[in-house]
Amino acid sequence: QVQLVESGGGLVQPGGSLRLSCAASGSIFTIYGMGWYRQAPGKQRELVATITSGGNTNYVDSVKGRFTISRDNAKNTVYLQMNSLKPEDTAVYYCNAEVMGYGSSSSRFVALDAWGQGTLVTVSS
User: Fold this and answer.
1) CA nearest 112: which of 20, 27, 15?
2) Residue 57 forms beta bridges with which residues?
3) 3-state DSSP helix/strand/coil percent for the chain, to nearest 5?
4) Which of 15, 23, 40, 123 is most exposed by smallest CB count within 10 Å?
5) What is the torsional sign of CA 29, 55, 52, 45?
6) Angle, alpha carbons 47-53-54 (nearest 5°)
7) Long-range contacts of 99-103, Cβ-Cβ distance < 8 Å, separation of 24 or more
């Protein structure tokens, strides 16, 4: 089993910054892609940013130039640095990871799509 735990959310004024962290733990063999999603009230969950194990990144257009995703593979942790925050960034942010975990002796590995519990980011004056 794999667990992802997000932290770093909170209340920030427009133009401010926050750094989100997401640490993966459990029976992990390797983690492929990692990413951040967000869900605003009344909205569908939206992909914000992704990063491959090799460090290639992608961002939704609305956060390009403001957000930076990074990862520390040794710590199984992904980060989202959020600068120049806007009220429309207000959402619950979820961490996601594509995980190859250790399986049983008969099925040695298991592919998992792991999700964190979410951390609330509120951008407001």
Assistant:
1) 27
2) 51
3) 5, 60, 30
4) 15
5) positive
6) 110
7) 99/2, 99/24, 99/28, 99/29, 99/30, 99/31, 99/32, 100/28, 100/29, 100/30, 100/31, 100/32, 101/1, 101/2, 101/26, 101/27, 101/28, 101/29, 102/27, 102/28, 102/29
Which residues are registered as beta bridge partners of 11?
Answer: 122
CB 15 within 8 A of CB 74: no
Cα–Cα distance measured from residue 41 to residue 121, given in angstroms and rounded to the nearest whole number: 12
Local mean pLDDT, 10-residue blocks, the chain (125 residues): 94 98 95 97 96 97 98 96 98 97 85 95 96
Q: Are 86 and 68 in contact (CB under 8 A)?
A: no
HEC letters along 40-93: CCCCCCEEEEEECCCCCEEECHHHCCCEEEEEEHHHCEEEEEECCCCHHHCEEE
Going by the DSSP 8-state scheme, the letter that residue 108 receives in this structure is -
